[in-house]
Amino acid sequence: MADPDDEDEGNEPLDISWPDTARKRITYLLVAPIIFPLWMTLPDTRTPRGKKFFPITFIGSIVWIAAYSYLMVWWADVSGDTIGIPPEVMGLTFLAAGTSIPDLITSVIVARKGFGDMAVSSSVGSNIFDVTVGLPVPWLLYGIIYGKPVEVNSVGMVCSIAILFMMLVFVIISIACFHWKMNRGLGFTMFLLYFVFVAVSLMFEYKIIVCPF
Questions:
Q1: Using CA atoms, how far apart are residues 209 and 203, in angstroms rounded to an integer?
Q2: Burial class of residue 30, CB neighbours in 10 A (0-12, 13-18, 19+)
Q3: Most exposed residue of 14, 15, 92, 129, measured as fewest CB within 10 angstroms of its CB?
Q4: CA triplet 102, 107, 113: central angle to 5 degrees?
C-alpha cells in the first residue's frame, strides 16, 4: 500500500514555484514547456475555486492530449526522415513507447495503492481501446472527409500481428508460471518478451526475415 502522505501530496494544488534542490530544478526545467500551458489554460480542480470548473478541465485535458499527440507524431516523423528511419519503425519503437508512458504512470500509481489487478486490466483495456477505437475513428473521419480509404503499407504486418498474438499467449503463460503474482522475475520476463517482439518485428520491416504472407 502507498504511504497516505504521498496520496495527500498528490491531492495538493499545483505549485510552480522555483525548487530548492538541483535535481528538482532540472526536472522543473524539463517539464516546464508542458506544465505551463496546462497551468495557464486549465483550472486546477484541487483548489476550492477550481472544483466547480471540472468539466472545463476534463474537456481541456482531452484537447491538450490531442495537441501533444499530434506534435509527438509530427516530431517523430520529421526525426525519422532526418535520421533515415522508416515511419513503420518509428511507430513500432519510439511512438509506441511514448504513447505508453501514461499507461505506465497509471499502472504504477494503482499498483502502489495495492490494486495490482486494476494495473493489469488498465494496460490491457487501454490497448484494446487503441486498436478498436483509436485506429478506426481517425480512419472513419478520413474516409468521410476525403472519400477514400487509408492505405496501410507495412512489410510483414500479417506476421507481426501473428507474433503479437503469440506474445499474448506467452504473457499469460509467464504470469501463470509466477503464480499470478507481480514480482521482479515477471518484470524481467516481460521486458525480455518485449525486446524479442521488437527485434523480430524490425527484422520483418528491414526484410532480414521475409514474411510469407
A1: 5
A2: exposed
A3: 15
A4: 135
Helix count and strand count (H, E) for the chain:
9, 0
**Cell representation of residue 70:** 499530434
155-207 pLDDT per residue, tens: 667 777 788 788 888 888 988 898 888 788 988 998 898 888 888 878 877 77
Q: How far apart are the first and last CA of the chain?
A: 48
Residue with cell 481501446: 129
Q: Which three cell numbers stand for residue 133?
A: 477505437
- Write the pLDDT tens digit of every residue in 77-110: 898 889 888 887 888 788 887 777 777 887 888 8
Cell 495527500 belongs to 8
* Distance from chain centroid for Cα 212: 31
Q: Phi, psi at residue 56, to the nearest 5°? A: -65, -40
Q: For position 89, what pLDDT does the model report? A: 81
pTM of this structure: 0.67
